[in-house]
Amino acid sequence: MKLNTMEPNPTWGPAGYEDAVEALGRAGLTFKVWGGDWCKDCRQQLPDFAAALREAGVPREHIEQFPVEKEEDGSKTGPQVGEYDIEFIPTIVVEKDGSEVARYVEDEPIPAAAYLGERLEEAEQTA
Fold first, then answer.
1. For residue range 11-25, what is the model confidence (pLDDT) as tens digits?
2. What is the CATH number of the domain that holds 109?
3. Which helix (H) or strand (E) element contains residue 118?
4. pLDDT level of residue 53 (50, 70, 90 thresholds)
């Protein structure tokens, strides 16, 4: 299933995000995105992230989308929510060779592309 919020923002540009775009475009990364089209934070954050992935040349088959619903008690339900301990959306998990190397959760103080780019740079330096 596809998230409408993962349609790239047509007005987003890579200026200021060159390092992040380069990090996102490294071979072997898979991006798992949990979100909801009903979610205000997802509508604000995911289109720019999708545009950054497009700019980085990430193949569509390396982007997995998981639509999430919100229950009356505030809990989230959807594919692999329990397996990945998803509490807030958007959540983006970056994996390499099946292992998690970075995670973005909705309330980080910088945009998802910049945040994940920094985490991927750090992971590469410690590898």
1. 999 999 999 999 999
2. 3.40.30.10
3. helix 112-126
4. very high
